[in-house]
């Protein structure tokens, strides 16, 4: 009973964070008809700054990291991304009136990773003084890329089977290349490379790190407004997508937390690292995923996978899963 009370208390404390306040603020502004708008160019610049900051910090630390400690969490992250897609394929993909392409695109988006959710989780951990490996954010592409690739490959195979098309190979190499060229992964991987090869600590600490939280608050405001604007899109598709968007972040996060706990036992993965792995598993891609899946699964309805992700999946991952898994970690690890 005491553990439950601790869980609820920690959960409520996390709901009072400034990050969540900006998300809910954006949602309320859009709901009340506010004319506030953030230019798309500014939004893209903020995304670049956040991912470059995350990448630089991770790259700097990866260079000093023990490969034995990094290897297992990276492998688990890749497996989690693939497992999430497979779960969506055999659950959402088999529900009444749900098209296979829509189910695979949705599960691919939920298997991929949200940079904004990752950034929000890092801030929340810092606020609670819960330590995590600085290279832990580098697990992002290990989960993101395999999930997107598997979803597109399965959709391509399904299309060929349903149309009776024979022969030919699925362009896995082209799919990987498209994923790596996406704006989000490009910025993150560039930051990783520069941080790993050059070690620009002064630049990171004197510029990127100082601006990180301010830019994140603006991003949360934009996501809140977009979440409200896409509610109508979600209403136009089967109710199953709404149910999936509500349930899957928590389920996926629990899978990530269990995998992170296994890494904690085997290689000493930190409590904060376990939380980050759980959160990126709970998140759903809001930057790199949508354009990649639009191109890779052209038959999928964007209202299904983007609407369910943006209007419900991302807010739940930020507002529910981040405080939930921090609270769970405080109990499991007695922080």
Task: Using brief descriptors, characterize the structure shown.
335 residues, mainly alpha, 0% strand
Describe this structure as you would to a colleague.
The protein has 15 helices and no strands. The chain is an all-alpha fold and 335 residues long. Helix 13 runs antiparallel to helix 15 (302-332). The model has no long low-confidence stretch (mean pLDDT 85). The two termini are 18 Å apart.
Largest sheet: none
From the alpha carbons, calculate the radius of gyration and give it in angstroms. Answer: 19 Å
Summarize the amount of helix as a percent range: over 70%
Q: Decide which structural class fits the backbone.
A: mainly alpha
The gross shape turns out to be globular
State the distance separating the first and last CA atoms.
18 Å
> How many individual β-strands?
0
One letter per element, helices H and strands E, the order comes to: HHHHHHHHHHHHHHH
Mean pLDDT: 85
Question: Roughly what fraction of the amino acids lie in strands?
Answer: under 5%
Low-confidence stretches: none
Total of DSSP H or I helical runs spanning 4+ residues: 15
How are the SSEs ordered, and which strands pair?
Elements: H1 2-14, H2 18-31, H3 40-64, H4 67-90, H5 100-111, H6 115-127, H7 140-163, H8 172-181, H9 183-198, H10 201-229, H11 231-235, H12 239-267, H13 271-282, H14 289-296, H15 302-332
Helix pairs in contact: 1-15, 2-10, 3-9, 3-10, 4-5, 4-7, 4-12, 5-7, 5-12, 5-15, 6-10, 6-13, 6-15, 7-8, 7-14, 10-15, 12-13, 12-15, 13-15
